[in-house]
Amino acid sequence: MEATASRFVSLLALCLLASMALMLGYYGTVELAVGPGCSRLVQASSVFVQGIKVSVDAGSQGSGGDLVLHGLPVAPPLDVPTEWPEARRVVVPANSHRQWTYFLNKGARLQAAYSVKSEDGVPHPLCIIIAQGESFMRWAEMPSLQNSTLFWRLVQGNGTIEQTVNLSSEYYIAVRNLNDHHDTTVQLEFRIRTLLYNTSGADYRCSPGPAGHGLCTYRLPFLGRNVAVLSSGHEERLNSDAQHVKLSYKPRWTVYVVGSVVLALVLLLLYEILDLLFGPCTGGGGGADRRRPLLADKEDDAASLGSSYDSVSHDGSDDREPEGRGEGGGGCVLCCDAPKDCFFLPCGHSATCYACGARIVEENGGCPFCRRKLKKVRRIFAV
Ligand SMILES: *[C@@H]1O[C@H](CO)[C@@H](O)[C@H](O)[C@H]1NC(C)=O
Ligand SMILES: *[C@@H]1O[C@H](CO)[C@@H](O)[C@H](O)[C@H]1NC(C)=O
Ligand SMILES: *[C@@H]1O[C@H](CO)[C@@H](O)[C@H](O)[C@H]1NC(C)=O
Ligand SMILES: *[C@@H]1O[C@H](CO)[C@@H](O)[C@H](O)[C@H]1NC(C)=O
C-alpha cells in the first residue's frame, strides 16, 4: 500500500512536470511583430487555455495606439479586402540594409515601385528581398539557403516588383546595399493589398495601448470555440519598424491538475496490471513468502554468522520448511531464471540464486528486500 502510494506520488509529479513542459512549449509566451494592416487570428484550445493576453511594452512611445484585440465566438471569415500605399525615401548606408515587416494573410499582394539613385551619378545596384519571417538575418551571406525567400533581385534605376503570398505569416521587404563604400538613396512606393478578418461580430474589443494599461485579456469560456483577432490600422508611421507585442496564454490550471491525476492513476493501474502479469517470478510463493528470513532454522551455519545474526528474528515457530530449490521458494528475483539457492548475511533474506547474490556482494550492493548492506552470501543445500 505504501509502495503504491509513493509510486502514485512520483507518477503524479512526473505527469505534472510533463504537462507543464508541454504547456510551455505549446502555449508559451511569444513576441509578435505587428506591422501596419495586420489582422492576425489567434487560436487556442479553450480546454487548456482560459485567456489570451496581449501586452505592449509600456516603454515604447505611442506603440499599440491602433492595436486592437477582438474576441469572437467563432473564427470570422477572412474576407475584408484592404489596400493602402506607403511611400518612402530612404538612404541605405554602405553595406547595410533597411527593412519593413508586415503580417500578411494568404492571398495578399505586395507591390513595390522603386527608383534607385546614387549620389555620385554612378549606379550602384541594391538588392531587394521579400521573405517570410520577421527580420532580415544575414541574408546576403547565404541567399540560396534561405528557402523562406519569396523574391530577391538586384535592381537599379526604376522598376516595379510584385509578390503574392500563399501563407498567412510575417513577411519583410528589405533593401540591402551591397556596396562597401557608397550610400544609396532609394525611393520606394509600396502598395499592399491584403485581406482582413471581418471582426464586426466581436463580443470583446480591447486596445492594449496606453489607455488599456498595455494589457488586454480575452477570456475563453470552457469548451467554447472562441478565437481572438489581433489587428492594427495602417496609417503612416514615422518609425518603419514593426511594433512588437507579447502574446501569452493563461493556462486553465484545473485541467492540467485533473488531467495529471487521471493520467497518473491510469499509469499506476497499468503498472499494477503489468506487475501482476509479468512481475518478477510470479510463479513463486508470493510476497509474504519471499520476505521471510531464511536463517531461523539453519543451525549448522550459525558458527559462521557472526554477531549480527542475533538481530534477526528467532521466533522459529512456523517457518521450518526449507526454502530452496523448487520448494515454494520460487525463482531468483533478479534473473528470474535460476531457483533461489542462497541467503544473505547479515539480514538472512533469501531472494536470489547464488550467482546473482555473489554479484550483489561484489558490487557492494544491498539486500533486494531490506536494503541492508550485504557482507556475505551463503549457498543453501536443500536435502
Ligand atoms: C526549408 O525551411 C523549412 C523551415 O521553414 C525547413 O524545415 C526545411 O528543411 C527547409 N528546406 C530546405 C531544403 O532547406
Ligand atoms: C524614375 O522614377 C522617378 C520617380 O519615381 C522619376 O522621377 C525618374 O525620372 C524615373 N527615371 C527614369 C529613368 O525613368
Ligand atoms: C503559391 O501557390 C501556388 C499554387 O497555388 C504555387 O504554385 C506557388 O509555388 C505557391 N507559392 C509559394 C511562395 O508558396
Ligand atoms: C462583416 O460581417 C457582417 C456580418 O457578420 C456583415 O454584415 C458585414 O457586411 C461584413 N463586412 C464586410 C466588409 O464583409
TrEMBL record:
Segments forming domain RING-type: 332-371
Signal sequence annotation: 1-25
PROSITE patterns the record matches: ZF_RING_2 (PS50089)
Keyword annotations: Metal-binding, Signal, Zinc, Zinc-finger
GO cellular component labels: endosome; plant-type vacuole membrane
GO molecular function, a single term: zinc ion binding
Protein origin, superkingdom: Eukaryota
Any GO BP annotation: protein ubiquitination
Protein's UniProt name: RING-type domain-containing protein
Organism placement in taxonomy: Eukaryota, Viridiplantae, Streptophyta, Embryophyta, Tracheophyta
